[in-house]
Amino acid sequence: MATDKKLGFIGAGNMGEALFKGLLKTKAARPEQIQVSARRPERVQELAKTYGVRGGSNSEVARASDVIVLAVKPQILDQVLREISPEVSQEKLIISVAAGVPIAAIERRLHPPMRIVRAMPNTPATVGAAATALAPGEHATEADLAAARTIFDSVGLSVVLEESQLDAVTGLSGSGPAYLFLIIEALADAGVKVGLSRRASLQLAAQTVLGSAKLLIESGEHPGMLKDAVTSPGGTAIAGLHRCWTTTNAQTPRTAHFSVATDLNVDYRATWHEVTDSGPFKNPYRIGWENFLRHVVEGAPMRTDFAAGIRDVQFAEACYRSIKDGAWVKLDAH
Ligand SMILES: NC(=O)c1ccc[n+]([C@@H]2O[C@H](COP(=O)([O-])OP(=O)(O)OC[C@H]3O[C@@H](n4cnc5c(N)ncnc54)[C@H](OP(=O)(O)O)[C@@H]3O)[C@@H](O)[C@H]2O)c1
Predict the structure, then answer these.
(1) pTM as predicted
(2) Does the pLDDT value for residue 64 go beyond 90?
(3) Which of 135, 196, 228, 328 could serve as 201's disulfide partner, Cβ 3.0–4.6 Å?
């Protein structure tokens, strides 16, 4: 969706630049609609030259814009808000990407009530593949959310959540790239260990993560199902997974645990009685089930004496599949 609004970016570093670059690249906005400010005048000049956008002071940008995107570091946001406060009214939409700064804190520095949307994007915004969560403030309208989505969808995918969920988003998709870079590096290290060049290993590892994520998103399948599709009986993929599971802490099949944790939006404690009493996994599996679900719900240690090695994997996968198939557990729509 294109916008005809005047868009102001206060702060034009990694995130600010990524956002207006995305808007221009997807033709959701034209250069003449965009005005930017930064700390250094030479930075503004460079951006004006590269993208054809206009530059200005923070106050000028705030005054001229219908939508003001605050993309400065959280520690200087307060100072910037004081500076632009005389230029801001409820006629304007404020979008903040400042990590950890609540909407209420921004509104207090301006003139309440204000239309504010808070966003939590991530670094892949710089390559048009961000995962962004948006949270509307009390006075933001549906049209405001749509305007915010136009901006963030131009650099990837966005979802709308409650503001109270943004800390969780910071831990998941905000910090997520760090976890994944670690995984990619580990995969590449493994490639180097078995004789591949560092360059080829990194390319293959990174593309595998990219392709797997694309497959998951485009197919809409559950990750456990896609994992099953890669693991043929007695094959190398299941051998590799088994090796992962049996060499990590407490020898637990983590993938299965995470799958269960994600799928079961029910009270596990109430559920496992039903599961263990009526399911095909009657004793001696019952004790394993209890242990398994307690491990998922309460973080209790996994009993490796009961379910060790390949049996552990098969057991956990069978549990997961049973849940997935709805064979025993009725998953309430949540
Ligand atoms: N990067 C991410 O992946 C990411 C993810 C989620 C949220 N965020 C949030 O995005 C915001 C910006 O992060 P960033 O990574 O883009 O930081 P950054 O690259 O350091 O950019 C900060 C920008 O703010 C400008 N600036 C500094 N003081 C200013 C002032 N007084 N008035 C106007 N502009 C000023 C800087 O100008 P100069 O260029 O002249 O120094 C720079 O353009 C932060 O609040 C962060 O929490 C970032």
Answers:
(1) 0.76
(2) yes
(3) 196
| Boundaries of every domain in the chain | 7-174, 179-220, 222-334
Nearest residue by C-alpha to atom 42 in ligand 1: 13
Q: Tell whether the model's pLDDT for residue 62 goes beyond 50.
A: yes
38 and 30 Cβ atoms separated by less than 8 Å: no
Whether 121 lines ligand 1, by a CB cut-off of 6 Å, is yes
Residue located nearest, by CA, to atom 2 of ligand 1? 123
Q: What is the CATH number of domain 7-174?
A: 3.40.50.720
Check residue 291 and give its pLDDT. 59
- CA 269 – CA 302 distance, rounded (Å): 16
149/259 Cα distance (integer angstroms): 29
CA of 292 to the centre of ligand 1 (A): 45
pLDDT digits (tens, 9 = 90+) for 109-147: 998 899 999 999 999 999 999 999 999 999 999 999 999
Rounded Cα–Cα distance for residues 230 and 222 (Å): 13
- In CATH, 179-220 is 3.30.1330.40: no
pLDDT beyond 70 at 216: yes
**Helices 268-278 and 285-298: angle between axes, nearest 10 degrees:** 170
